[in-house]
Sequence to fold (665 residues):
Amino acid sequence: MTAILYFCLIPLLIIILLAQLVYLPISLSALWSGALFWQIWRYYRGKIAPISKWILLGFVMLCLLFIYLQYQSFWGVEAGVALLSSCLFAKCLESKSVRDLLIVFNFGLFVCASLFLHSQSFWMTCLVLIGLVFCFIGLYRIQTYNFEHVQTKKISIKNDAQHVLKFIAFALPFFIILFIFFPRLPPLWRVPIASHQGVTGMSDRMSPGDIAELSQSSALAFRIIGHLKQLPPVQKMYWRAMVLDHYDGAVWTSQPFNQLPLPVHEPVDTDKTVKYQYLAAEPQPWVMSLEQSFPVDSFYQTHMDGSVKPRRLIQQNKPIQLRWKADQNRIYPSDQQQIKAAQQTDFTLQPKTQALARQLWAQSQFNPERYVHKVLDWYRQQGFVYTLSPGHLTANRTDQFLFETQKGFCEHYASSFVILMRYAGIPARVVVGYQGGQLAPDAQSWEVRQLDAHAWAEVYINGQWQRVDPTSAIAPTRLDMGMQQYLQQDQRVWGEQSGLIWKHQFNLLKQTRVWSDYLAYQWQSKVVGYDVDRQQSFLSRLGLHSLYSSVVVMLVAIAILILFYYLKWRMDRRRELSVLEHEIYSFEKKLSVEMKKRYAETFKQWMQRLAEHVAYKQVFFEVIHLQEKIRYVEQYHDQDIVKFRRLLKDCSSEIKRAEKNLSSS
Fold:
């Protein structure tokens, strides 16, 4: 029996390992894999090989060590789930009896449920459900093994799986009813994001080549929900993350004062704003929003550089409500700290770039607006190439890019443009985020992917920050149609990776991810995101406007479902009965409790007992003889069934007559 149970245990351990592979350190994954291979060896060996207590102790101590080295604690989501899973693997190693495996499968139910603390995505849900099914099969096998005939291992597992899946199918409608109608409460606590966990593709620092590498990924970054026709056109869709205004000659970073809360000087006219929702694909430290957007929820706040961030990082799959100030003045302040930081030039001197800035500044007659257009014209005239494979830059990066390689991605052009502005004394800074996007397959939401990552510049002219995108001078179609379409239209952007095989592989992967992300979005929106507000909105559309009415509907639906199952059981039982048994069953229903067939009685004994209470006994002996002929000889005609039904009616009449005589006397 234990060998059959290990057939259920091994897939359970594989699923738990796969579900946590992304969240575990490599050392702990390798240790669990070793324990898993040990279980597989025990299964194919067909015997429960004992394991040394010292080996088991060493396994536990190594698990604890790796967990502590990775998380610096045994508390928290990641450390807690890893600790529970380690205990499950350890218990499997020492399991020697059915009783041990009974504990393992019950513990496995708890560990599978804890995986939702990592993620509540559709694919994680599938893994958890498969793990639960194997736990149920193991528990079912333990309970029924001693009551069944000897079977082969293959037939036993197949039958157990069919029974378990049948039970789950019967329970599923109850789950759906409770999910829809059972009153929901606001979350009592939220899962925090661990500080060591990478939460987004966009970084808070930028060096040449970073965004080009990110843009080769077709993974979903975030999704926009709302009235899409009210949003700006693709070429004006700049999804702002943060400002980078400090440069050390190689890397752009943000000054600390940029993260100060933005003071509100005047109320916003909401009638002139466009409302939309932002749904991140993965937890991230800031909200990618259209420029001039502000959050509706007080849990989020706008900072001095225009970035929107939550007050505290948490695991949340709920869309964030935002408003876009489409036709109102810019909300970004321009205090002296920001202007001074945007003029910083204490990085490694770029002599050729500085000389170019002086030349173009003089040609523009020292007018900032003319100078901006002069620099953009210079980019257009030099034959720059927009490519995902810009090559590696060394010492004087800007000089080397502008006058030697002349191949780059958006971050190269934004960085060099800002430096040209600063050498002319004009405050300028780099802004990172995303640009463009694409309609979802159902055309009901807007998808922005990692390949839409972008960098542009902001220049302080005429007392306000103005957006200038140098990429428009090099690859204007990239902004007009978005990066997703641009990659398909212009193969030159791939650079050294411009082979047709690479392009087709990328397009195939992108299309697969599009539909996978769409499925995940529907799961998050319809199931995981079914919170208090969504439940009330859905129930109100059904005409249920109070808690009392929804509870009544839930109880009535459950009662109807129970009645349906009962009637189905009765019908199935009738179909399973033979014609003979059906007639006997109908006859028995009309009898009193004392006259009904007893559990240990045969049909013959039952009829003989009933004959003792009546005056005319011959009809009971005739029905016994006919029943034996039909059942055992199996040589009968339809007339025999008709006769059998008539004899049972006569028996019923004799019993009623006897009961009537007994009551009258």
In short: The mean pLDDT is 82. The chain has three domains: 2-147, 210-518, 579-664. The radius of gyration is 37 Å. Residues 547-576 form the longest helix (30 residues).
